[in-house]
Request: fold
Amino acid sequence: MRSYLDDFTRREWQHESPAGTVRLAVVGLGEFARDQALPGIEDSEFCNTTTLVTGSSDKGKRIADKRDIDHVLSYDAFHDGEAADDYDAVYVATPTGQHLQYVETAAELGKDVITEKPMEKSVERAERLREVCEAAEITLMVAYRPRMEPVFQRARELVHDDGVVGEVTEIHAQFAFDVLDIGGPDQWRIDRDLAGGGALMDAGVYTATIARFFADSNPASVQGETVAEHEAFDEDVEERAAYTVQFENGVTASCSTSFNSARNDWVEIIGTEGTLRIEPAFWFNVDRDLSIERDDWEATVTGPSVDEVREEFDHFGYAVLTDTDPEPNAAVGIGDLKLLEGVYESANTGERVQFN
Amino acid sequence: MRSYLDDFTRREWQHESPAGTVRLAVVGLGEFARDQALPGIEDSEFCNTTTLVTGSSDKGKRIADKRDIDHVLSYDAFHDGEAADDYDAVYVATPTGQHLQYVETAAELGKDVITEKPMEKSVERAERLREVCEAAEITLMVAYRPRMEPVFQRARELVHDDGVVGEVTEIHAQFAFDVLDIGGPDQWRIDRDLAGGGALMDAGVYTATIARFFADSNPASVQGETVAEHEAFDEDVEERAAYTVQFENGVTASCSTSFNSARNDWVEIIGTEGTLRIEPAFWFNVDRDLSIERDDWEATVTGPSVDEVREEFDHFGYAVLTDTDPEPNAAVGIGDLKLLEGVYESANTGERVQFN
Reply:
């Protein structure tokens, strides 16, 4: 155990120290991009921001001044390739259902891409997004913060390599918060056309990707429920969802997610020999407890808090600079979306959805 | 909050102090009956044991001597009404699928009944059990320990009366242990004919009853999965199960249960204003943490450990002595079995099972 805790924030994925940095165009300046991504990039070793792309030039200029960023482009100027010599890669932080169009332009310009989760608003569009990147032979990473967090990296080593819980049997994961309190009733996260759904797409995607991360197997089937009770939600944009995944190796995952609950985010991995829990799991910029309980001992480690956004951009920058594949790639992003679409299908039909 | 914590172990259900005790015949002397129920009854205020009913007269005599119990009967002698003047009520602690026959005899003899959970091995047999008791006009209680535990009593008051988590939105519950380590491969708990199933019937019934306890609503539908991987289990006797309940009031419950995991038992109630967690929840004779987390405060109370078996028998004895209805009654027991049968049906058909 000690070996997993010493040097807690080490990067198993980093095998060398490449020179240089990847210059980014940040597309979309919503709250997360402004308050989390731009500072994270600023602190990162392998990335920096040279270009902002936004529909609001005033906002763009204010942020560019504050952060000493060279260019502010409109979306049209970005599509026209303006200032393209001054960035190497594109971070797509627009509403989910608009990722594809910016990735298409990035690919045309030969720029590597890191795109927010979910990868797109449907499996179909995510697959087009992957094809566009493959055809252009550019790097594509999906921005899953938790997968880059040291707590999750250490937890996966403990579970997969060290067998700390024995054979994994069951997983529970939960991610809930009050979306209306954060962004009000007019935000894109509860606009089906922009987001592809409601709580399941925006928050549930974390539970899906982390269940897969710890199950270490492909989903065999899923059953799901969606709920819409508050007036801000309807059958197109679910307020909450709950679903059960059966993985090919027999692990089950019980997940739920809500846009109308107190903040509550955790994952628990249960096995033949013990239990591992991470809480909080999915919110950003918080200390996370990693707790392990076995018959004969229990331990809680509150890992050194790291900026997982910085880690994520460093992982992307490293992949680009070393020409290696980032870990949360298109296969991860599309796999998660297939699972989420399975939940919607099961919720609609009342039937278990089998994969393959 | 203070008012819920002072006098933590108070009994909201007890409004008077009836005189006398209910004399019990304990039917079945398995490990739980021997090591938990008999001492609990001995410590209880309103019950005492006068009669043991067992297939092993040697074992019965040894226990009767140790605990100063008057009669040891064979099952046949019990059915013949031997020594029936010396007990007032019957505690049925046999394998699940044998409850009905002993309740039938108890009813013929006019004795009140407390029967272990699940009530019987099928809804059909549980309904016959209820009818038998109703026709004989005897008290019937189902022995759900957690519902009688002060931690759960206080938690329900906090959730339902005090709104400590706001409106309940989601519930997660888990109960797992290693049944083979406890009782080996030949025990009745993994014999479908005796138990009606595997992990779901024996351990999952706790998650079902507690989800209903906190949802405070009837199940509208359920989706479920069963898993059998270890050689001791098969499709008739599931090793594990995971299921999602949608309640009529919109609450969802994500539950899982296992006969082949480390001991792991907890329940988490998530709402619009906060989260409440009880852990351990379902194992007996342990200290339980009741934790509440809200935006502005969090608290953990480790309630005074009580013998919930004693509480359960006192609740039953009180109901008999005062001629009132015990809280975990036939409606609770049959409701839980309907939910579990729904999980089996959904697991078999791959379809959501709707109730009514």
Notes: Residues 64 and 291 of chain B are 41 Å apart (CA to CA). Residues 150-305+327-354 of chain B form a domain with the Dihydrodipicolinate Reductase; domain 2 fold (CATH 3.30.360.10). Chain B is about 40% helix and 25% strand.
